[in-house]
Design goal:
Rossmann fold; two-stranded antiparallel ribbon; 5 helices
C-alpha cells in the first residue's frame, strides 16, 4: 500500500520528445502506463502534478510557444499543480513543488515521465534528499540512446537499467506500474 497522500509527478510528457533529434527511445508503452497511473491516482483522490519543461533555447523542440512544448494527448484533464521548469529537477520549477507538497501534507511521490536518466532521475534524487518517500515508476519512464564521451553508443534500455540500479534503495524505490496500481487498490 502506498502512503497517503502520495502525489503522482508526471514529468515532461511533451510532444517535443517525439522529435527524432533525441535519438532512439525505449519503452513504447510509456503513454499507456502514464494513462493507467493518472486514472488510478485520480480515482483514489491522490494529487496529480504535471511538470513541463519550458526550454529557453529558441531552436529546442521544447521551446515555449512551439507545438513540441505542449503536453502529449495522454495528459488529459487538469492537474492539481502545474510546475514549469527550465532545468532538470522539478523541484527547481515554478511554483515551488516542495512547498506545495508540504502545504498539502504530501510526504510521498511517485515519479514518471521523460527522460528516465535526466529530469525523472534528477527529480527523484532531490525528492529522496528532501525526505520524501519516493517511488520511481520505471516502466512509466522513457530513455533515449546516448553516446559516451569515448564515442560508445549506450542503448536506451541500458541507460534505463543503470538509472534504476543507481536510484533503487538509495534515493527511491524502483517499481513498475502494476505494483503501484495494486498498492493504490
Amino acid at each position: 500500500m502506498l502512503p497517503s497522500p502520495c502525489a503522482l509527478v508526471v514529468i515532461d510528457v511533451q510532444r517535443g520528445f517525439d522529435e527524432p533529434v533525441w535519438g532512439r527511445r525505449n519503452n513504447p508503452e510509456l503513454e499507456d502506463h502514464v494513462d493507467a497511473l493518472l486514472a488510478a491516482f485520480r480515482a483514489h483522490q491522490q494529487p496529480v502534478v504535471f511538470v513541463r519543461h519550458d526550454s529557453r533555447e529558441l531552436d529546442s523542440p521544447l521551446a515555449v510557444g512551439t507545438p513540441g512544448n505542449e503536453f502529449q494527448a495522454v495528459l488529459r484533464g487538469d492537474p492539481d499543480l502545474l510546475v514549469t521548469k527550465h532545468v532538470h529537477s522539478a523541484f527547481y520549477g515554478q511554483p515551488d513543488l516542495d512547498h506545495w507538497l508540504q502545504d498539502h501534507g504530501v510526504k510521498s511521490v511517485a515519479i514518471c515521465g521523460i527522460a528516465t536518466d535526466h529530469c525523472c532521475e534528477s527529480t527523484a534524487r532531490m525528492a529522496g534528499d528532501l525526505g520524501y518517500t519516493t517511488f520511481f515508476v520505471m516502466d512509466a519512464t522513457r530513455a533515449f540512446d546516448r553516446v559516451s564521451p569515448s564515442g560508445e553508443l549506450i542503448p536506451a534500455d541500458q541507460i534505463a537499467q543503470t538509472t534504476a540500479a543507481s536510484l533503487h534503495d538509495e534515493f527511491a524505490t524502483v517499481v513498475d506500474t502494476s505494483t503501484v496500481l495494486r498498492a493504490l487498490a
